[in-house]
Amino acid sequence: MKKILGLLGMAILGGAITLGGYKMMFNDEVIVERTVTQPIKTITANYNPVLDKINTVTNSVDLSVAAENTVNSVVHVKNTAVRTQLSPADIFFGNGSKGRKYEQVGTGSGVIISQDGYIVTNNHVISGATEIEITLNNRKKYKAELIGTDKENDIALLKIDSDVDLPYIPFANSDTIKIGEWVLAVGNPYNLTSTVTAGIVSAKGRDLEGNKNIESFIQTDAAVNPGNSGGALVNTRGELVGINTAISSKTGSFVGYSFAVPSNITKKIIDDLLEFGSVQEAILGINIDQRDDNIDGVKIGAVAEDGGAKKSGLKEGDIIKKVNNVKISKYSELRGQLTAKRPGEFVDVTVYRDGEFITKSVKLSKKDSYISRSLRVVLKDLTKKEMKKYDISGGAKIITNQNKNLDYYGVKEGYIITEINKKPVLNASAAVKAIEASYGSGKSIYLEVINLEGERERYAFR
């Protein structure tokens, strides 16, 4: 019994000694800490939640569908023109030779717009052609008939006859296309078969310096090269938004920007050519005040007495801000909207006047006066009363004359041009085209006019 108690005492003593030693060696307080990571502070600068979607949008754009739907509807256009070359002896000595005839070939692109073979291209692609050949993407060739052209907007309409329905590209509303939207340029650059390049819409309503006609291009950065002219600019659904027409280049090859005639303008021109044989130009009946370049909109300088603008209540000094809810910031955008409309149509015009916005419904008038920049005159269509008075079926009245040669010979405002180069004049538009085609080329231009007394006079100018 004593032995057991002794062992128990020794155990208790050993435990006490062990506990005491631990206290002596590890007397510092032990603290267990919990580390929490603090979030990094951020500052949002010019934040736009739309930017969060960039990667998603980029990855979702599938351009292969648009390409597949369009390559077979874009054709190669071959323009053959017969030219005559005179030798120096013929030019200086007048040997009476008719010269050497040779063929000049040009190429471009075109877009099939209907299954029965109507094709749209640029006027400059087929200008002067004696023969036009169309090659489809499957290598089949057709002779094309020229239906009509519009030089001012650089659009031409062709027709081929095929035994089968042809693939075609439907028109889109070019007013709804947005800057930054993906587009494809489809054409035949350098005589290659249908080639597709991609880009985005860089600008709308673009007017080009030195271009006196089209002033409402769609600008893109899709690569367009020689041979692409007349080809298709399509959206990601494969719908036609424009006809590729020009590039900005000093070398003749693509350097970053290309330009297309909007589909709304193209479609209106085609409809006019099919229905009337010529383009019906619509106007508001106003003159533009271009003295202030800083205005966001188009300022009305004057309102014609017999135009739709006057009848609807538009006034001098009004600033046009919208046409049919399409924002107007400059004249090229206004001209683009009007070019896509017909005389007789109504448009809603929103103007800024005296601190408030006013919307008027304006009936568009038919353009009946045209400017000849070469002859420096403004010509106007004759009224039915005037044609009956002088017993003529057509002509063009001079309403503004800034030509010193005409002044010298006594040709005045109010004179009526009835013939140009011994060919009858139908209207003011035809007169301007005839004048521009010949005047200033070194050849004389012959005019037959009816003076203010109703007498006929003839003049030759160089």
Notes on the structure:
The protein has 462 residues and is of the alpha+beta class. It folds into four domains: 68-159, Trypsin-like serine proteases (Thrombin, subunit H); 174-275, Trypsin-like serine proteases (Thrombin, subunit H); 282-366, PDZ domain (Pdz3 Domain), CATH 2.30.42.10; 369-461, Roll (Pdz3 Domain). It has helices at residues 2-25, 54-60, 63-70, 88-93, 123-126, 263-275, 308-312, 331-339, 384-390, 404-409, 428-438; strands at 74-85, 100-112, 118-121, 131-135, 141-143, 145-150, 155-159, 182-187, 195-206, 217-220, 232-234, 240-247, 258-262, 282-283, 286-288, 298-303, 319-323, 326-327, 346-353, 356-363, 365-366, 369-372, 377-381, 396-401, 416-420, 423-424, 445-450, 456-461. It has a seven-stranded antiparallel sheet. Strands 22, 23, 24, 25, 26, 27 and 28 form a seven-stranded antiparallel sheet that branches. The chain has a six-stranded antiparallel barrel with strand order 8-9-10-13-12-11. A hairpin with a 5-residue loop joins strand 27 (445-450) and strand 28. The longest helix is centred in the N-terminal third of the chain and has 24 residues, at 2-25. The relative contact order is 0.08.
